[in-house]
Amino acid sequence: MTADPPDNADLDQLREAACQCHGCDLYQDATQTVFGAGPSNAAVMMVGEQPGDQEDRAGEPFVGPAGRLLDKALADAGIDRQDVYMTNAVKHFKFKPAERGKRRIHQTPSRTEVVACKPWLLAELDRVQPELVVCLGATAAKSLLGPSFRLTRHRGEILEFPENTGKSGVARITATVHPSAILRAPDRDAAYSAFVADLKTASGAVKGK
Questions:
Q1: How many domains does the chain have?
Q2: Which ranges carry the Uracil-DNA glycosylase-like domain (predicted)?
Q3: What pLDDT, on a 0 to 100 scale, did the predictor assign at position 102?
Q4: CB 126 within 8 A of CB 176
Q5: What are phi and psi of 146, to 5 degrees?
Q6: Which residue has the higher pLDDT, 68 or 162?
Q7: Which band of pLDDT confidence, cut at 50, 70 and 90, is reported for residue 96?
Q8: Alpha carbon of residue 113 to chain centroid
Q9: Is residue 3 in a domain?
Q10: Which residue range forms the structural domain that includes residue 77?
Q11: Is 0.90 topped by the overall pTM?
Q12: In this structure, what CATH number is given to the domain that contains residue 199?
């Protein structure tokens, strides 16, 4: 089946085509493809790592515990989620089989899996052409900024979007932690405050803010 996005397709057509993508093996165990969601003219696109357990079941990005925390942080940062296009670097859930009665456990996608899914992410960027891309977590950041990118070194910085992607119309990019990292943080309050501060910086970098 297809591993490449169709040319000149709009977001709805891309979403439909992505459901047929067998570019890596993750589709075999995932419930469904979880494509991006949000306005096609969004000024901000947020890119996470991959769908989680609840996203895989619902078919929508950021609807689980990390998504609910993200919603709260966006509100505290003065950003309306309805104005943001949400997606992931990888469109299928990678997980360990669950023990009886327990939630399936997320596994980090391999570099090969991220690269296999990158054409779909670039296609989304090309259609939406946001002013700013916000990468949530190291996997998302490295998918667009390269494997040498260090989140600990450049967190919260507003950077020029890499020219080597070949995607015009996207001006800038920034990276912060994934909201799931806040749920695991020893000092959740401090981690949350720093996350909201990063989102406020991102909001301020968008024209009209």
A1: 1
A2: 35-200
A3: 72
A4: no
A5: 100, 155
A6: 68
A7: confident
A8: 14
A9: no
A10: 11-204
A11: yes
A12: 3.40.470.10
